[in-house]
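Sequence in, structure out.
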Amino acid sequence: MYTRILVPLDGSARAERAVPVAARIARASGGSVTLVQIVRIPASYGPYLYGGDVLNPRILDEEQAAVEEYLKRIAASPELQGVQTQVKATVGISAPAILDLATYYKADLIVMTSHGRTGFKRWLMGSIAQQVARHAPVPVIIVRQDSSAQLTSAEPDHLTRLLVPLDGSPHAEMALLPAVDLVTALAGKGAGALHLLRVVDPREIAILGIAEPVAVQDAKAYLRQVADHVQAERPDALSYPITYSVAVDDDAASAIIRVAQDGEDAEGAGAFGGCDGIALATHGRSGFTRWAIGSVAERVLQGTHRPLLLVRPQPAAGDKQASTATDTTDPKGNPASDSSSDSTWSALF
């Protein structure tokens, strides 16, 4: 269950769409919400511009004070009434600073909005939400800006029916229990739905010489085994059945989005008519194909209007993994030297 929820804001109504989601989870768990906003230093005041303008500390203090007042107004809003809420305005670079604050406040969930920007600029820079999801050590809920019109429920905080795509890897399965916790928090005991999906690529099974019906049956057997395991892991929380289905498609991301929107498109177990959101690990399989076409998680994030619960699988002890964040701000809000490089944030999921 999620009890310490971090909500990054930027002063926009779009970003505030994450607040009702966080508030509802906090009420269900008896947890708290921390609202944060990163105050960015204007580019013209960068430390490496010789002969340029010098940043007036008073201007930065005034901006930080204004941000704190804004966060206090949001904390006092009806959506957060009765929820223990704290606020923090800090100076830094957005994504690394958010990750640092998540660590400092021991957050177990981050809820934020993605603006869904597309085109070359996105590939060059990446959105803050994507950067946070790639490196966060805790699950991240990303609410899309235009999500409410596409949800099966009226509002984005009604994430009570989740689709969990699996690819057969232990990494992908790490999204399962966080998904159960989210559905339980938002739907309550005895309600909600969880649907597992396995996408079978006809090109791969052709190369392996496996007949399609056999591959589908093997995939169903795998999903049945996973469903039984999850129900055994969460017997108290799961009072609803877990359904599953198999889709045959050479484009996993498209199949996930289609099933999320329309329901089953292949043989499955139990009726499933679409979902409110998608829960998936930010990587499962690896290798050249993932680098060549981009990760499935990235393409699902860009292609769906539904909210996503993204879980970054944590490395086992001894695994060599890149650091999740760089020290760009301290908890007191003082700017620190930026030791990150562009390559830190350019990696795909």
